[in-house]
Design a protein that fits this description.
7 strands, alpha+beta, 7-stranded antiparallel β-sheet, NADH Oxidase, 253 residues
Length: 253
């Protein structure tokens, strides 16, 4: 009897240890390299990350010229973007610029509350779908199948250029990353930061001779539903990007 009881205790202990090990492994894998939790881990394990081409750190256009030429562009040719161009746009928005994980846009306390999604409709060699940018790996990972541009345009009060752009880059924020340290003042810091990131993106698009327009008018709940955002992420910006149409020189803003 004592032997049987001992065997049961051993089996029970092994089961507990196994469950703990499995749970720990899933817990570790469910965290990004940048310290944020991957709420879609169960859905995304079947989708491999796509490593983006290395971004360029120089250009034929100066920052002054990019500032001079930047305009909101709402008309596009319908031609695809290259994966290299997408890489450059995402790096400019939230790319890593140093060994300590610092990024292209300043962040209060280096807490980096922003998350970047790409609604892909027309990029060479890339399936349509919604992708999430991983700054530390400079990669993207598909989180949703299908072309969501038209649905996103409806969420953006019917602004048709959102549906016609080659890609729509959506910037969301997890406010708690910043307010956890700075309290209510952190909300202001997050809003400052999304402005920095959006301007980086628009200037990079200009340097690549692409057209971009920043969109702030949209139904938050519909954007959240379209991208299947986790509860803690709030959409702040949609930036439509495509190849400039022939009649875009007169854009007003």
């Amino acid at each position: 009897m004592e032997v049987k009881r001992l065997d049961k205790k051993i089996v029970g202990s092994v089961l507990v240890v196994t469950i703990v090990l499995i749970s720990t492994t899933i817990y570790i894998l469910a965290w990004h390299g940048d310290g944020t939790r991957d709420h879609r881990y169960a859905q995304m394990t079947s989708e491999a990350s796509i490593t983006l081409p290395r971004p360029r750190y120089d250009s034929e256009i100066s920052i002054e010229e990019a500032l001079l030429r930047r305009r909101s562009v709402r008309e596009y040719t319908g031609e695809p973007l290259s994966l290299q161009e997408l890489s450059q746009l995402l790096w400019a928005t939230q790319g890593i610029t140093g060994p300590r994980g610092l990024r292209t846009a300043p962040s209060a306390g280096a807490l980096y509350p922003l998350e970047i999604y790409v609604v892909v409709g027309n990029v060479e060699g890339l399936d349509v779908g919604v992708y999430k940018y991983r700054p530390h790996e400079h990669s993207i990972q598909k989180v949703l199948e299908g072309d969501s541009r038209s649905v996103l345009a409806e969420a953006a009060l019917g602004q048709s250029w959102v549906g016609r752009a080659a890609v729509d880059i959506v910037i969301t924020a997890v406010y708690e990353r910043t307010t956890g340290k700075y309290g209510e003042r952190g909300v202001r810091y997050v809003h400052m930061e999304v402005g920095h990131a959006a301007q980086n993106l628009c200037l990079q698009a200009t340097a690549l001779d692409l057209g971009a327009v920043a969109v702030g008018a949209f139904h938050d709940e519909k954007v959240e539903e379209t991208l299947n955002l986790p509860e803690e992420e709030k959409p702040l910006y949609i930036i439509a990007v495509g190849r400039r149409g022939a009649s875009t020189s007169g854009s007003a803003d």
